[in-house]
Amino acid sequence: NTDENPTNKRKQRLTWILGGTAAAAVAAGLLMQSFRAPAGHAASDSTAGSARVGTAKSSDVLARVGKETITKDAVADECIARHGKEVLDDLIHRLVIQQACEAQQITVTEQEVSAEIEKIAKRFNLDVNQWLQMLQAERNITPVQYRENVIWPMIALRKLAGEQIDLSEDDVKKAFIREYGPRVKARVIMLDNLRRANDVWDEANRNPDDFEKLAQKYSIDPNSRALGGQVPPIPRYTGNENLERAAFKLKEGELSGVVEIGTGRWVILKCEGRTEPVVTDIEEVRNSLVDQLTEVKTQQAIGKVFEKIKEQTRVDNYLT
User: Fold this and answer.
1) Which of 31, 58, 67, 293 has the largest count of CB atoms under 10 Å?
2) Where are the strands (E) in 198-264, listed by range?
3) Mind listing the pLDDT tens digit for each residue in 86-133?
């Protein structure tokens, strides 16, 4: 759409590709920050984990302050107190994936990890080094962390979920409309009380030219309130049917009724027109749409398989 900022579009795509299929795992509770699974194989090597959680060595002195010493055990205890739950959860999740891979004789090779990184970099028309440098600059993820914490579990979970993803033509058409179809330009007043929402609607209906001021006065959404209720243009097929249905019924200058968009959330819309699509032929963007839809469906499959293998694995967490 002509109203969209290309820089914002690029950042949104960076977020989507960076998350990749690992995003579903994160959504399912798989926090990868501490993963150290070897990229060379998915299941057999657990030495990295055992080095972190095994029997502690003797209390080596790490620092001396006057006559007092700070030992390795003391530092370890402090680290556990501050971050133990999060790190332990990460290690547990890694072992859950590794054991599931062992059970199905699934491995992930170094070559597969490198090939996946190269494929993702090409989506941005970058070579691998440029892509890794951008990740480090914009997301503070080192190349080693990216290989081990994002790409390895992404591939492992994808293999566990199964590689085949079925897309229908209807899926592709809806994605085209969502990404490239016309959108409704609007201002919004969001409220968390239905009676107040009805009162504000009465006031807005009497004085539609004051909608911007009313949004600044009444809206509970701080971002749009600061802009007089202005929100990004509203597309179709993003998941909130009530909002989309109300928005696309409006002509420029018209107000919606009070629209429930979620539990305890109501909005009043004022339409300010439509955006003009810059792409009208689906064939021009079919390949990119299929790639994106495949990624989304893969994420969903990964989330399901991760929840399933967690349920099937007994975990005794003595820390929490």
Assistant:
1) 293
2) 230-234, 259-262
3) 888 878 888 898 899 999 999 999 999 999 999 999 988 999 999 999
Spatial distance between the Cα atoms of 126 and 128, rounded to a whole number of angstroms: 6
- CA 290, CA 281: separation in Å to the nearest integer? 15
Rounded Cα–Cα distance for residues 153 and 169 (Å)? 30
pLDDT band of residue 164 (cuts 50, 70, 90) is low
Report the predicted TM-score, pTM, of the whole model to 2 decimal places: 0.60
Whether the CB-CB separation of 157 and 23 falls below 8 Å is answered with: no
pLDDT confidence of residue 56: 38
Half-sphere exposure of 148 (CA within 13 A, CB side): 15
**Strand order through the sheet with 265-274:** 230-234, 184-191, 265-274, 259-262
* Helix 286-312 with 152-161: angle, nearest 10 deg: 80
Task: Name the CA dihedral angle for 150, 154, 156, 158, rounded to a multiple of 10 degrees.
Answer: 180
Quickly tell me which residue has 């962390």 as its tokens: 145
Structure-token pair, residue 95: 């072992």
Beta strand extents in 23-109 (DSSP E only): 61-65, 68-71
Q: What are the pLDDT digits (tens) for 2-12?
A: 444 544 554 55
Of 22, 34, 145, 143, the residue nearest 95 (C-alpha): 34
255 Cβ partners below 8 Å, 6+ apart? 201, 204, 205, 208, 211, 268, 269, 270, 271
Q: What is the pLDDT of residues 271-294, one digit of tens each?
A: 999 999 989 999 999 999 998 898
Our CA dihedral for 112, 118, 120, 122, rounded to 10 degrees, sits at -150
Average pLDDT over residues 239-256: 96
How would you label 154-190 residue by residue, b for 16+ Cβ within 10 Å and e otherwise?
Answer: bbbbbbbbeeebeeeeebbebbbbbbbbbbbbbbbbb
Convert 226-246 to b/e letters by CB count within 10 Å (16 or more is b).
Answer: eebbbbebbbbbeeeeebbeb
Measuring CA to CA, which residue among 306, 307, 277, 288 is closest to residue 17?
288
Q: Any bridge partners for residue 269, and if so which?
A: 188
